[in-house]
Write a structure and sequence with these properties.
Number of helices: 18
CATH architecture of the largest domain: 3-Layer(aba) Sandwich
Number of domains: 4
Shape: globular
Oligomer: single chain
Strand content: 15-25%
Largest sheet: 10 strands, mixed
CATH topology of the largest domain: Rossmann fold
Distance between the termini: 10 Å
Structural class: alpha/beta
CATH superfamily of the largest domain: Vaccinia Virus protein VP39
Number of strands: 29
Mean pLDDT: 83
């Protein structure tokens, strides 16, 4: 039975560099040298020698780019520890909330979720000169995470990225580049990547995304009106917009982006500037007014250059006119067409603001979809709406500059549906997860959401954090942003469930927390040899539970960690199975020699009962220190081999 160590590939995240080499070997077998490595001279010939080794080429370069690329390819030995006590509906939910540095977490998700995410939306630091920047350690990103969160003696490495720094843009690029490299591999072939950004780094973001996703996969920039009143970049220019940069994983396979479905037929503006001036006669109860006083329509309903003037004095009852009248304006339709609509019973709406709710609803026509527009104002929520949402949930302003759920729901329904997987690895206030719930409630979807957020400590001395600090202290929770995010999702779930009258909405989330690997590395010195040998008898970290080991095995085996888990008692030992028998785990503290045969036979019988698609690929995991003796361990492995288990897949931790 193979004993796994921290250096075993089975306990590391996917090695993306190895995967890349495998792709080259598959595409160009002629480029393989006799020792199995890649002969780059032959590869150059196979590619037609079209390789530019000069420095003068178009593209974005900066100090640290090569190290950032290597950082993305470096496997992780970290673990995600399950936290059922911090979760909501742990046993049934398919949503996840992961606390940790998103760089390390994205590595850990590669085996299980590569090529499975339909939409990735992120709202990273805009690099305004004062917001939080992730100071990555290119040698050891998990050590960097421990420093950021104050889990080591050196304390927190949290600092603003001063605009006066010569590395102002470089620091931001070194932060974002490896994360986008990892995000790219998580997207489905028809997946979509969206990133909110401000003026500070939009030019660099475009260049980085062209490098990672390919310029051909650029879909456009969505311009969002984020606020009703401008903030001033300088004394001359005010801004009310932000940008959302959109790329497809593989543009020919990406879906048509839609803003929503017109459920009851085509809708066209009824009055439309540019057509010849005309006076139309409207019969009684043929039109609904959505402007001014709803009991008496205003005489002048002008807006800009579009003139719409009521020529008759009529009284509107319940929003509709009580008698025939004439309306002067610039019309999309003629009197004859209007008469057709009235005869067909179509709904006609006139409002003061043309092009918005001014439409004729031609019922019974084929359903149409409205394409996502590059600029959107109407019906898309603003930051003011986001503030109101969170005040309604918390009763105070615990987050600064949150995104509104209306914006995210608009983007989510534009590209996802059904059981699609959505990811946000700068989760912040939790808007993406909340919007996913709202959109599922609205259209009956079963979308899943993975949220990742650094447990960034709040500063008790910072006036900007004062409200959040007070709220968490009152709740007796750790002073970290991720605690606020989880509480927001709990409150959102309660609010949604209180409104539901029917249907089954998954409003829960499983919490996992990033930690160092579950196994202690071998770090012996001549002075500590005796202690190291003693610790090596059981190299599982003393603070780790069976659940920690079990979910780490699932994740590193490449299975969805939200899969349902089955549990049985076999020979007095707890055995768990996941993935229809893809993995069996018996991680109890002691396995006696007398239990071995019954335990092995019970696992084999359970596999037969589950009937997995590939029985020979089932993995069985035990705790190495649990075996009473080497004889017990060898006998159990031999019986499982006799029952058809691959001896290389029967392992111990």
């Amino acid at each position: 039975m193979k004993r796994l160590t921290p250096d075993s590939p089975e306990l590391k995240s996917a090695d993306l560099a190895v995967k890349n080499r495998e792709k080259i070997r598959a595409a160009f077998p002629d480029a393989l040298a006799s020792d199995g490595t890649i002969d780059f001279d032959v590869l150059r010939e196979l590619l037609g020698d079209e390789i530019d080794e000069g420095e003068e080429r178009y593209g974005l370069n900066w100090h640290g780019k090569r190290a950032a690329r290597r950082l993305a390819l470096t496997p992780s030995t970290a673990a995600l520890r399950p936290c059922p006590e911090d979760s909501l509906d742990w046993d049934t939910t398919q949503n996840m909330f992961i606390e940790g540095d998103n760089l390390e977490v994205l590595k850990l998700l590669q085996k299980s979720y590569a090529g499975k995410v339909k939409l990735i939306y992120i709202d990273p630091p805009y690099n305004t000169g004062k917001d939080f920047v992730y100071p990555d350690n290119f040698r050891d990103s998990i050590a960097n995470y421990l420093e950021i969160t104050g889990q080591v003696e050196d304390g927190q490495r949290i600092a603003s990225n001063a605009e006066a720094s010569g590395r102002f843009h470089t620091d931001w690029l070194n932060m974002i580049y490896p994360r986008l490299k990892l995000a790219h591999s998580l997207l489905r072939r028809d997946g979509v990547f969206m990133c909110s950004i401000g003026n500070e780094e939009i030019h660099n973001l475009r260049s980085v995304c062209d490098d990672i996703f390919g310029a051909d996969n650029f879909c456009g920039i969505f311009i969002w009106e984020k606020k009703k009143k401008p903030s001033f970049l300088d004394r001359n220019m005010g801004t009310v917009t932000d940008y959302i940069v959109v790329y497809a994983r593989n543009r020919p396979e990406s879906p048509e982006f839609i803003a929503g479905t017109v459920e009851d037929g085509k809708k066209y503006p009824f009055n439309n500037a540019g057509n010849p001036l005309a006076t139309l006669a409207f019969p009684a109860n043929a039109v609904e007014f959505k402007c001014g006083d709803m009991t008496i329509p205003p005489q002048d309903m002008s807006e800009g250059n579009i003139k719409t003037r009521l020529l008759d004095e009529v009284v509107v009852v319940g929003g509709r006119n009580a008698g025939p009248f004439r309306l002067e304006g610039e019309w999309r339709y003629s009197q004859a067409k209007l008469n057709e609509f009235v005869q067909a019973g179509a709904e006609i709406v006139i409002s003061k603001v043309p092009f918005r709710p001014n439409y004729v609803n031609r019922s019974g026509e084929a359903k149409k979809t409205a394409n996502l527009l590059s600029y959107r104002v109407n019906d898309v929520a603003t930051n003011e709406d986001a503030t109101d949402e969170l005040r309604a949930l918390f009763g105070c302003d615990v987050f600064t500059y949150p995104k509104p759920t209306g914006l995210l729901a608009y983007l989510i329904r534009a590209v996802t549906g059904g059981t699609d997987l959505i990811m946000d690895f700068f989760a912040g206030s939790g808007t993406t997860a909340h919007a996913t719930l709202l959109q599922n409630q609205a259209d009956g979807g079963q979308r899943r959401c993975i949220s990742i957020q650094l447990p960034e400590p709040l500063n008790e001395e910072d006036a900007g954090d004062a409200v959040a600090v007070r709220f968490l202290k009152d709740a007796k929770r750790p002073l970290a942003i991720s605690e606020l995010t989880k509480e927001r999702l709990r409150r959102a779930a309660r609010a949604l469930r209180s409104m539901l009258t029917a249907g089954d909405l998954d409003a829960g989330f499983r919490v996992f927390k990033l930690a160092t690997g579950n196994l202690l590395p071998w770090e012996a010195t001549p002075q500590t040899m005796k202690e190291s040998l003693s610790a090596a008898v059981d190299h599982v970290r003393p603070d780790r539970t069976d659940d920690d080991l079990f979910y780490d095995v699932i994740l590193k085996h490449g299975l969805d960690i939200c899969l349902p888990v089955e549990e049985r008692s076999i020979a007095g030992h707890v055995v768990r199975a996941v993935g229809g028998g893809a993995v069996f785990a018996c991680l109890g503290p002691r396995i006696g020699i007398a239990d071995v045969e019954q335990l092995a036979e019970g696992i084999a019988a359970w596999r037969t009962e589950l009937s997995p698609a590939n029985p020979s690929e089932c993995r069985v995991v035990f705790r190495d220190a649990a075996f009473e003796s080497d004889v017990a361990k060898a006998n159990l492995a031999a019986i499982l081999k006799q029952r058809g288990f691959d001896e290389n897949l029967v392992v111990s931790l």
